[in-house]
Amino acid sequence: MAILEDIQSIYAEAENVLNSVANEEELDNQKNLFIGKKGKLTNILKVMGSLSVEEKKTLGKEANETQKKIEELVQNVRTKLKNEFYEVTLKQEFFDVLKPVKLSDKRGSIHPVSQIQAEVEAIFTSLGFSIMDGPEVETDENNFEALNFTGDHPARDTQDTFYTTDGKLLRTHTSAIQVRALRNLKPPFRIIAPGRVFRYEEVDASHETTFYQVEGMVVGKDISIAHLIYTMETLLSEIFKEKVKTRLRPGYFPFVEPGFELDIQCLVCKGKGCSVCKHSGWLELLPCGLVHPQVLEYGGLDSKEWTGFAFGLGLDRLVMMRYGIHDIRYLHSGNLRFLKQFPA
CA 224, CA 231: separation in Å to the nearest integer? Predict the structure, then answer.
């Protein structure tokens, strides 16, 4: 049968042509000449419509086997070409791993959040504070219950909190470390606790789903709001190297009573109003207040004997005020051009 002989001759021709190609690009081009949509083998099969059933079976089987053989041939040639390329490359591109290299003059820098955190820690340690740490994956008890959050408090909702499959959560504030301090430290004590926190926020110029806080807590006898205000003003004047305009507003936080919002005049727009301060001229920076008696009791302390104050400093916002950054998203974008502006 003439068509059968044609199919067999196609493989012989393909074997000769494909084994002589010089690179993979040429291999792909030559392959399409034989088994592509308009290839020689495809064109031969177009005449099968006029053949008998038996002839179709015989030719169809031969055509399929020939196509498989050509595909295997292409794969073998491709492997051979790759091996030859690697052998040549290895001979031409030798690299001595023990050869001394010239050190670059370009150096990395410390992230601005880390820089300001180090300054904050230095300021507070000079005031007699100790530094504490805690896990980012917390229990509901430490993050909410021990801090006097009610069972129906909206902060427990999944719209604000990321929960894990085992019933734990990503801490929404460093206030969870307050609980650990009350359980593990003997009063009187002063602690700060810097760390990363997580919230299901709508991201904008002043809000992120991941950001940094510095928790502070002082427990002793006869602690008053005056101690709190003095500590906060000392921190701000040391950080900004100038007297910063502040205001204290009533605020509600389950773990303090009374509670306050300490705002600073926006240093990006100098109080004129911008996207960072939501055009109010003020930026919420320091939620604070006197430690709630129930929190002290939950931590095992007698609230009639011991008092204290606590605060949560927004570290990212402090960085923004320090350097005049208009968008919090720059801080964790990984943009090296942005980060190189803050050499340590």
Answer: 11
Q: Helix, strand, or coil here: 202? A: coil
Residue 93 corresponds to which amino acid?
E
- CA 86, CA 198: separation in Å to the nearest integer? 48
For residue 180, pLDDT over 90 is answered with yes
Q: Residue 158's Cα: distance from chain center in Å?
A: 20
DSSP code, position 204: B
Is domain 112-339 classified as CATH 3.30.930.10? Answer: yes
328-340 confidence digits (pLDDT tens): 999 988 888 888 8
Q: DSSP secondary-structure letter at 128?
A: T
pTM of the model: 0.63
Environment class of 207 (CB within 10 Å of its CB; exposed 0-12, middle 13-18, buried 19+)? middle
List the chain domain ranges: 2-92, 112-339
Query: How many beta carbons lie within 10 A of that of residue 201, not counting itself?
Result: 14
Give the Cα separation of 289 and 253 in Å (integer): 8
User: What tokens were used for 172?
Assistant: 């929404």
pLDDT of residue 144: 93
Supply the DSSP string of 157-183, one letter for each residue: STTT-PBPTTS-EE-SSTTHHHHHHHH
Report helix, strand or coil for 256: strand
Calculate mean pLDDT across residues 107-115: 86
